[in-house]
């Protein structure tokens, strides 16, 4: 007797929970050779709206945590990724049709990148901040602060590495994230959300949507409660219109990048989604 | 309200079949059929599934704003807080002059003079474009004070210019079966709502359904309040969880409908506390329309007691007007 396979249904990750799409829609995820792999939820604009609500409510807790604490939490994600590397390797091989060695290298790179960004959590303020020169008996200090909710269109040609490269830096400063995963390669993204759900990341800090970026991203670009949008994976979309819509609500915007070096690790990806707060403080009067 | 209040009271006495003693009221209230709790909750859940979109939704959102009692009932309230509440009541959305005003502001009794002063010429009947002042009275929210204190609390608010009084019933007395006491208190508070010119402030009777434990008790308390002369029956103070729920509101609307069929008199219903999203509020609007009819969707017959609901409704209005989602930065911080 042959055993009936039980394929996994890949759902969304919103506010620390795994809901189906509000629209009830799903789409088939196919392997590189065209075989059916899994059903994934096809998020609608209302799922994106709910994800922004979840992300907004998580901002105060996540941005209020100390840099040390955020660093530890992010590092913990890298540890958990390491523990589930076999699953990620298998999923990347399935959807991208690459060799085991190439898939393994992508997972390694993703984990290393996560660790690299985790290390910045308690350091980027010292690098990006400044004690300004003043002509008076007081200090004047500029510090970067997280901007709030960041929407991300993840790179579309990478399962895990592209997603991590875009999400991790936004989290470092204390932003919360709504990310649209790669439409064709969403499996590793949802598995990453399972890692996040069992790590120390508070619910709502990362929200992962699967489905059509062309459908969802414009709603996030014009959403008044989104503070910044990373269009790194939106190169094939009408991203100029989205940038225009984002300008209406004064969002910070990262423009599309293509190729294997998209969203390469850089301090600028952290500081790009921060705002500079400048304060003064008296010097000791005695 | 005019001085015709005696007529319903006499009718109530006729219905009860004697003086409003504990025994007579008990015989009457316990003779009311019990509530089918499963059926009630299922009906409420079914009414909550209606899809209200586009022009219907726009109408519902504006209707909700017109029915809101914009409320601040905190120990930390100040005259300044009340003034900003009044400003919000008069101009809910500064970016959209077409946005309607709310029905009333609801404050503690000692804040009534500040609300009246802040409203100025806009103080008036919501049916005529004004905004009323509602005051909670009778030792809100617990109701644990002597009768004379409660009456003075009420009369003081009315003297200060309150158009509506939100009183709490004595839940302890109700639950221990002393219905006569509860009845007398409502009648007395109603009398304390009388102004020198003989007119009455609108009386809303808060049942605090979260403390009444059963649907049967909610139905009895609703009947008791209406018999005693309530103009409105209100679910909750907002200080006790659970506050307003859709099944409880549906049940109270059914009592109001039955009373209307019995006497031709229209009583208002005010769910209060816990209604924070437009989506929830629309469910209540649907429930009102389906239970007592659309004519109940006026400020004189239905209110939402809410504070944060207004901002969510405004965000939805902005979304419908602009076509993109709005955010908390585009409404006031309360």
TrEMBL record, chain A:
The keyword Cytoplasm is assigned to this record: no
Annotated signal peptide: none
SUPFAM superfamilies, sorted: ALDH-like (SSF53720)
Keywords on record: Oxidoreductase
Domain of life: Bacteria
UniProt-listed InterPro entries: Ald_DH/histidinol_DH, Ald_DH_N, Aldehyde_DH_dom
Domain Aldehyde dehydrogenase: 22-253
PANTHER family xref list: ALDEHYDE DEHYDROGENASE-RELATED
UniProt-recorded name of the protein: Aldehyde dehydrogenase
Lineage, broadest ranks: Bacteria, Bacillati, Actinomycetota, Actinomycetes, Micrococcales
TrEMBL record, chain B:
Cited InterPro entries: Aldolase_TIM, DeoC, DeoC/FbaB/LacD_aldolase
Highest taxon of the lineage: Bacteria
Keywords from the UniProt entry: Lyase, Schiff base
Entry GO MF terms: deoxyribose-phosphate aldolase activity
Gene Ontology annotations for the cellular component aspect, listed alphabetically: cytoplasm
Pfam family, one: DeoC
Keyword DNA-binding carried by entry: no
Family listed: Belongs to the DeoC/FbaB aldolase family. DeoC type 2 subfamily.
The protein, known as: Deoxyribose-phosphate aldolase
Organism field: Microterricola viridarii
């Amino acid at each position: 007797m042959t055993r009936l396979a039980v394929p996994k249904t890949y759902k969304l990750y919103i506010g620390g929970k795994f809901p189906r799409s509000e629209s009830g829609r799903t789409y088939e995820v196919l392997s590189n050779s065209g075989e059916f792999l899994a059903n994934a939820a096809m998020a609608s604009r209302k799922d994106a709206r709910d994800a922004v609500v979840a992300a907004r409510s998580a901002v105060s807790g996540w941005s209020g945590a100390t840099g040390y604490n955020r660093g530890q939490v992010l590092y913990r994600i890298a540890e958990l990724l390491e523990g589930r590397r076999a699953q990620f390797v298998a999923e990347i091989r399935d959807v991208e049709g690459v060799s085991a060695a190439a898939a393994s290298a992508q997972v390694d790179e993703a984990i290393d990148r996560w660790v690299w960004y985790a290390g910045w959590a308690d350091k980027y303020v010292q690098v990006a901040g400044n004690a300004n020169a003043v002509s008076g008996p007081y200090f004047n200090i500029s510090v970067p602060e997280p901007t709030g909710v960041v929407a991300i269109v993840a790179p579309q040609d990478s399962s895990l590495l592209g997603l991590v490269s875009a999400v991790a830096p936004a989290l470092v400063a204390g932003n919360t994230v709504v990310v649209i995963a790669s439409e064709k390669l969403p499996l590793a993204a949802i598995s990453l959300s399972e890692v996040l759900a069992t790590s120390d990341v508070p619910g709502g800090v990362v929200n992962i949507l699967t489905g059509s970026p062309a459908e969802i991203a414009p709603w996030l670009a014009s959403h008044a409660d989104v503070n910044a949008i990373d269009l790194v994976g939106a190169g094939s979309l009408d991203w100029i219109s989205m940038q225009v819509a984002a300008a209406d609500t004064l969002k910070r915007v990262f423009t599309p990048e293509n190729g294997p070096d998209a969203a390469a690790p850089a301090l600028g990806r952290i500081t790009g989604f921060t705002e500079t707060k400048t304060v003064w403080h008296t010097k000791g009067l005695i | 309200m005019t001085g015709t209040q005696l007529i319903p009271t006499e009718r109530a006495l006729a219905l009860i079949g004697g003086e409003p003693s504990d025994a007579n009221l008990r015989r009457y209230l316990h003779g009311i059929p019990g509530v089918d709790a499963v059926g009630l909750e299922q009906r409420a859940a079914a009414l909550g599934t209606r899809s209200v979109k586009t022009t219907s939704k726009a109408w519902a959102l504006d209707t909700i704003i017109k029915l809101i009692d914009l409320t601040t009932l905190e120990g930390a309230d100040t005259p300044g807080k009340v003034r900003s509440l009044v400003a919000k009541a008069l101009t809910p959305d500064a970016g959209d002059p077409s946005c309607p005003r709310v029905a009333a502001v609801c404050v503690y009794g000692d804040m009534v003079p500040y609300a009246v002063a802040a409203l100025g010429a806009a103080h008036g009947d919501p049916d005529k474009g004004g905004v009323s002042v509602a005051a909670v009275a009778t030792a809100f929210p617990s109701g644990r004070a002597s009768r004379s204190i409660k009456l003075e609390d009420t009369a003081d608010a009315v003297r200060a210019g309150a158009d509506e009084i939100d009183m709490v019933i004595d839940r302890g007395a109700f639950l221990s079966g002393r219905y006569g006491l509860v009845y007398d208190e409502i009648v007395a508070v109603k009398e304390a709502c009388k102004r020198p010119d003989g007119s009455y402030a609108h009386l809303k009777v808060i049942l605090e359904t979260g403390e009444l434990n059963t649907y049967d008790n909610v139905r009895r308390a609703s009947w008791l309040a209406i018999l005693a002369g309530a103009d409105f029956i209100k679910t909750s103070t907002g200080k006790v969880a659970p506050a307003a729920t859709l099944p409880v509101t549906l049940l109270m609307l059914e009592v109001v409908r039955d009373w209307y069929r019995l006497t031709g008199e229209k009583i208002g219903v005010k769910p209060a506390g816990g209604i924070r999203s437009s989506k929830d509020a629309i469910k209540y609007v649907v429930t009102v329309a389906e239970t007592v009819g659309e004519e109940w969707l006026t400020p004189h017959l239905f209110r939402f007691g809410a504070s944060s609901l207004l901002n969510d409704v405004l965000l939805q209005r902005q979304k419908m007007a602009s076509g993109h989602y709005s955010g908390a930065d585009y409404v006031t911080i309360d």
